[in-house]
Amino acid sequence: MASARDRVLDSFVAIVCEEGERPATLDAVAARAGVSKGGLLYHFGSKVALVEGLCERLSDLSAIDVERMREAEDGVARYFVRNCQWVGSELDLALLAASRLQQAGYEEAGRTLDETENAWLETLVDELGDEPTAQAVKLLGDGLYHQASLGATTDVRPTRGVVDMEALLAVVDRLIATKPAA
Fold first, then answer.
1. Of 1, 124, 177, 179, which cross-links 134 as Cys (Cβ 3.0–4.6 Å)?
2. How far apart are CA 114 and CA 97, in angstroms?
């Protein structure tokens, strides 16, 4: 069973993702987590502290993802593109909540999102040795994430069917193979 602190943070993330920032009051978060308001305040003394906790979680999750990228047997670029369709994962939910909090004016959420995006891009640049190629791979993955997060798992034209990941990875391989020499 998750600790009370984790349950509180999970509840905050869920409310922000499902309903937005305003309904994520301390009372609502405590009720959803099944803890007293005092129990919530023991771990997070304010809504700002909850935002800080979420940003810390996002930083930790993105660091784990970057490490997995670096260790991926089929390479950083293929890992990044392949994993951009993981909607509903803990990392995805933290990204979504941070995005909504950024939109609500929480600057730390915006900084943490920037750091996460930059870490992925830097990891791609480190492996590929070419920033424009790394940006192209990142944008391909970002597009897949956007499509998946909107629930669009098929091409706009229904006759095309679902995304053919292996075909997209072949495009990534061709893109990498044609990058300019350093």
1. 124
2. 14
- For residue 151, which phi and psi values (nearest 5 degrees)? 85, 10
pLDDT in tens, 50-92: 999 999 999 999 999 999 999 999 999 999 999 987 778 899 9
Which among 84, 110, 114, 80 is positioned nearest to 97, based on CA atoms? 110
- Residue 2 has phi, psi (to 5 degrees) of -65, 150
Task: Between 158 and 24, name the one with better pLDDT.
Answer: 24
- End-to-end, the C-alpha distance of the chain in Å comes to 50
**Interatomic CA distance for residues 25 and 22, integer angstroms:** 7
Task: Supply the pTM of this predicted model.
Answer: 0.89
| pLDDT at 103 (0 to 100) | 97
Q: Which CATH superfamily is domain 1-45 in?
A: Homeodomain-like (1.10.10.60)
Exposed e or buried b for every residue in 23-35, given b needs 16+ CB within 10 A? ebebeebbebbeb
Segments making up each domain of the chain, as ranges: 1-45, 57-177
Query: CA 124 to CA 60: how far, in whole Å?
Result: 19
Main-chain dihedrals φ then ψ at residue 38, nearest 5 degrees: -60, -40
